[in-house]
TrEMBL record:
Name of this protein: Glyoxylate/hydroxypyruvate reductase B
SUPFAM superfamilies: Formate/glycerate dehydrogenase catalytic domain-like (SSF52283), NAD(P)-binding Rossmann-fold domains (SSF51735)
Lineage top rank: taxon: Bacteria
Species of origin: Chryseobacterium gleum
Keywords for this protein: Oxidoreductase, Pyruvate
Residues covered by the D-isomer specific 2-hydroxyacid dehydrogenase NAD-binding domain: 110-287
Gene3D superfamilies per UniProt: NAD(P)-binding Rossmann-like Domain
Originating gene: ghrB
Gene Ontology MF terms in the entry: glyoxylate reductase (NADPH) activity; hydroxypyruvate reductase (NADH) activity; hydroxypyruvate reductase (NADPH) activity; NAD binding
Length: 328
């Protein structure tokens, strides 16, 4: 069975695939055009897919009828039409849980960096414009006893909430499709309506799975309903927020600050005016960028491919209903 891998991944995953006797196909270069990528996909049985720049939609599945399975090197699968994949009897693997701690670490880092204007002040040091002591210049805010609102309290959101609770004694409120009983019991988290989450959060951190109905959910209207001292954190998907509205909300002091590991668009322009604001910290989508997390992702992605090659159910599957259709 042939496995097309569009970019290099940690050796842990490559070794697993080789030991399973699978034929691995790497492209001659990494930054493929859409046409080049599609040609590789047309000539393979399975795909281990890195990145979200290409979409697995109806057109893809029609153009690549020989593809039988796709293993994503990510938790999110919003760039895949899972309904169409299921209709084509194609399982879509993903890599949940293994990067929860690393991603929540970044959310926690962003919250603190924004609260203390760390990026802005670091820039002052690099510019050599440290200046004399000014009791009123670029003051931050403390997080002790503040309210952290979590939109999407799954594993990553739970890790973020736990860190914030233990470090700063923050009160945890959240909005989910379902109650998270573990968070309510262990962290004293309170389930609230989406409207109350927006109005009552001192820090609002996004950790939900992105779906089309979430597109630019956090926009001018919602930012205007948030607290004036609120910090907006997004480490999920850039599509959750309207970046121009976010910038304007910050300029108009509708909210206090923003920390982003994902942007809209992504990558963002180097001259985006939001980068000039003192209460903003933006990172280049590094949520899972640790040795431990990336190795774990490689193992899970490879494990999904190997399971498929052995005619077994993928251990981590984004469209598990595909197996019902296979059995029926």
């Amino acid at each position: 069975m042939k496995v097309f891998i569009n970019k290099r991944i940690p050796e842990a995953g490559i070794k697993m695939l080789e030991e399973a006797g699978l034929e691995i196909i790497f492209p001659e270069k990494e930054n493929l055009s859409y046409e080049e990528w599609l040609n590789y996909c047309k000539n393979t049985d399975t795909i281990l897919s890195i990145g979200t720049e290409f979409t697995y939609d109806k057109n893809f599945f029609e153009a690549c009828p020989d593809v039988k399975a796709i293993a994503l090197y990510s938790v999110g699968f919003d760039h895949v039409d899972t309904k169409e994949a299921t209709l084509k009897n194609i399982p879509i693997g993903n890599t949940p849980d293994v990067l929860s701690r690393a991603t929540s670490d970044v959310a926690f880092l962003l919250m603190q960096s924004v609260a203390r204007r760390a990026s802005y002040n670091f820039g002052k040091v690099k510019e050599g414009s440290w200046g004399a002591f000014d009791p009123l210049h670029a003051l931050g805010q403390e997080l002790y006893g503040k309210t952290l609102g979590i939109f999407g309290l799954g594993r990553i959101g739970y890790e973020m909430a736990e860190k914030s609770k233990k470090a700063f004694g923050m009160n945890i409120i959240y909005h989910n499709r379902h109650h998270n009983e573990e968070a309510e019991k262990e962290l004293g988290a309170t389930y609230v309506s989406f409207e109350d989450l927006i109005r009552n959060s001192d820090v609002l951190s996004v950790h939900a799975n992105f779906t089309p109905e979430h597109k630019e959910l956090f926009n001018k209207s919602l930012f205007e309903q948030m607290k004036s001292n609120a910090i907006f954190i997004n480490t999920a998907r850039g599509g959750f927020h309207n970046q121009k509205d976010l910038y304007q909300a910050l300029v108009d002091q509708k909210i206090w600050g923003a920390g982003l590991d994902v942007t809209n668009p992504e990558p963002m322009a180097a001259d985006d005016p939001i980068l000039q604001l003192s209460s903003v910290c933006i990172l280049p989508h590094i949520g899972s960028a640790t040795v431990e997390a990336r190795n774990g992702m490689a193992r899970l992605a490879a494990g999904n491919i190997i399971a498929f090659s052995e005619n077994k159910k993928m251990p981590n599957c984004a469209n598990p209903e595909v197996y019902s259709s296979r059995l029926s």
